[in-house]
Amino acid sequence: MSRVLELLPAVDVRDGQAVRLVHGVSGTETAYGDPLAAALNWQEAGAEWLHLVDLDAAFGTGDNRERISEVVRRMDIKVELSGGIRDDGSLAAALATGCTRVNLGTAALESPEWVAKVIAEHGDKIAVGLDVRGTTLRGRGWTRDGGDLYQTLERLNSEGCARYVVTDINKDGTLQGPNLDLLRNVCAATDRPVVASGGVSSLDDLRALASLVPAGVEGAIVGKALYAGAFTLPEALAAVAGPEAAA
Ligand SMILES: O=C(O)c1ccccc1NCC(=O)[C@H](O)[C@H](O)COP(=O)(O)O
């Protein structure tokens, strides 16, 4: 396991545009233009990973499959693909883009048998997104309750889930800082790596997340802070690279 926190700049795609939402709520979009331009920008700035989300597929308002495929095709870096991957067809389409791994959310809540099957088939190409308000999971683009975080985590652990992407919805897109207690609690309940998502606002937030690497936090998704110019990606990479980052 890497001792350096991995950073995953986010490109969330809605209606063909790179956007940021607040609390993941449909209709709160701020648009940031062409998703490919955004992704290429993060790649050129030194990203090793891209977190790419099809928000329309997540919300059930269509999809951006062509654009998403094009973005993945143009990346030389690793891509984590999320949004609306819920059955054999959408999983096959997602994996066919050439992405490094996919992130299942709703399916893990509504189709546990299918998720157990695809975890067994695809191993660490599958991560599960645990998107929570408090300790209640949310599915269908974070619009519906989907059960208890820790019960679901126990089930997924026993099924061999390789990795979790943990989002505090109350923090997402707000620049209020990550929920470190939630991340510590999830890390204590699993021996699988955890990718933190939602709320990063500053280099200090990234240093705080880097301090959780020994506990099991492997990476951090960063959206709004990069788009809002709170810091640059090279600054972020430098902040988590040095020995002082984990102090
Ligand atoms: O990932 C999803 O499937 C998803 C579904 C519905 C709403 C939002 C969704 N993802 C949002 C993200 O993954 C954000 O890009 C990420 O949490 C970054 O948050 P922030 O740094 O707070 O902008």
Summarize the structure.
The chain is an alpha/beta fold and 247 residues long.
Can you describe what's shown?
With 247 residues, the protein is of the alpha/beta class. The protein has a single domain (6-240), classed as TIM Barrel, CATH 3.20.20.70. Helix content is 36%, strand content 25%. The chain contains eleven helices and twelve strands. The chain has helices at 35-44, 55-59, 65-74, 88-96, 106-110, 112-122, 149-158, 180-188, 203-210, 224-227, 233-241; strands at 6-14, 17-20, 30-31, 49-54, 78-82, 101-104, 126-133, 136-139, 144-148, 164-168, 194-197, 217-222. The chain has an eight-stranded parallel β-barrel, surrounded by seven helices. Strand 5 (78-82), helix 4 and strand 6 form a beta-alpha-beta unit. Helix 1 runs parallel beside helix 3 and helix 9 (203-210) packs parallel to helix 11. The protein is globular. It starts with 5 loop residues before the first strand and ends in a 6-residue tail after the last helix. Bound molecules: the ligand O=C(O)c1ccccc1NCC(=O)[C@H](O)[C@H](O)COP(=O)(O)O. The site of the ligand O=C(O)c1ccccc1NCC(=O)[C@H](O)[C@H](O)COP(=O)(O)O has 27 residues, from strand 1, strand 4, helix 2, strand 12 and helix 10. It is an enzyme of class 5 (isomerase). Pathway: Amino-acid biosynthesis; L-histidine biosynthesis; L-histidine from 5-phospho-alpha-D-ribose 1-diphosphate: step 4/9; Amino-acid biosynthesis; L-tryptophan biosynthesis; L-tryptophan from chorismate: step 3/5.
